[in-house]
Amino acid sequence: MLSDLFGIGVVGYGYWGPNLARNFAAQPGGRLVAICDRDPKRLAQAALAHPSAETTPDYEALLRNPEIHAIAIATPVSHHFALAKAALLAGKDVFVEKPFTQTSAQGQELVTLAERKGRIIAVDHTFLYTGAVRKIKELVDAHALGDLLYFDSVRINLGLFQQDVDVVYDLAPHDLSILMHLVGNAPVCVRAMGARYGNNPQDCLAYLHLEYANGFVAHFHFSWLAPVKIRKTVIAGTDKMVVYDDLEQSEKVKIYDKGITIKSDADSVAKVKVDYRTGDMLAPKLEHREALAAEAAHFLQCVRDRETPLADGRAGLAVVRIIEAAEKSLREGGSRAQIAQG
């Protein structure tokens, strides 16, 4: 019966909204009730793709609809806070596209409001639901890599220049969410350098360097201005190292039994002895399922069982805090910017 299905309303049917609508509509036990967008052409496309769903430019209509239990937001980040706040106040659970909010103050207000209202927030950190990241998380949790030493990530392509956000806001949430998911705790500071192209007011190239209290470091390269598309991450531990290449079709994750051991030379404190260890490479079998489908299913389960999502509001807030500090460092020419904790 339709009354037994969990109703979803999608706001924004531009770039990412169609993917959300398609995946939520396909979930057993879920029903795509309505799609909202201010563009008549997009609404017409939505009506063709989902004839059983209501289409409307009126967001308030979704909030008033008792058949809609949750709102999925896929709009520019400048609208996330107002739309999510209105949904929470209307008693709806919320699924928000990355990045969570424009500012950490907005993110904190939404997290506090959701807790007060007993509502659930999930942030669309899609990569956490890929078979590759799930496998790497298993390795890290099992201490198979040893003590983590560094995280080095490149996400570049000849990309779509955004008008409302720079390359950090656009691309960094993907890799920062993976980092936070794997490591578990937050970095203490960040240094960032960027560059702009032509008359574009937004940085199209950026390098971020994150430092942790225990000496662990993470480095990121983001660019909309590269001749090739690269999505590659190296995670190094004292025992083993992982290379995660998201563009690889068959072997996205490779585990290398490689490393070094550094010993002091007994005859001279100024010299060190380096022993190199080279072992096998293993490409583990990964789960093959569309990450967004797994994420949609997880969200529906969480709202039914009132459980905390894997990427909840606090996880989204933690990423925004890093981005906010990185933006401060960019404005100050690469200065070390402290990252808010909590």
Question: Could you list some keywords that capture this structure?
Answer:
single chain, 342 residues, alpha/beta, Rossmann fold, Dihydrodipicolinate Reductase, domain 2, nine-stranded mixed β-sheet, 9 helices
Write structural notes for this entry.
The protein is α/β, with parallel strands linked by helices and 342 residues long. The chain has 2 domains: 2-127 and 292-312, NAD(P)-binding Rossmann-like Domain (Rossmann fold, 3-Layer(aba) Sandwich), CATH 3.40.50.720; 128-289 and 321-338, Dihydrodipicolinate Reductase, domain 2, CATH 3.30.360.10. It is 32% helix and 33% strand. The chain has helices at 17-25, 40-49, 59-64, 80-89, 104-117, 131-141, 167-183, 291-305, 313-331; strands spanning 6-11, 30-36, 54-56, 70-73, 93-97, 121-124, 148-158, 189-196, 203-211, 217-223, 225-237, 241-245, 253-265, 268-282, 337-338. The strands form 2 sheets. The protein has a 9-stranded mixed sheet with strand order 14-13-12-11-7-10-9-8-15. Strands 3-2-1-4-5-6 form a 6-stranded parallel sheet, with helices on both faces. Helix 5 runs antiparallel to helix 9, helix 6 packs across helix 7 (167-183) and helix 7 (167-183) crosses helix 9. It is globular. The model has no long low-confidence stretch (mean pLDDT 93).
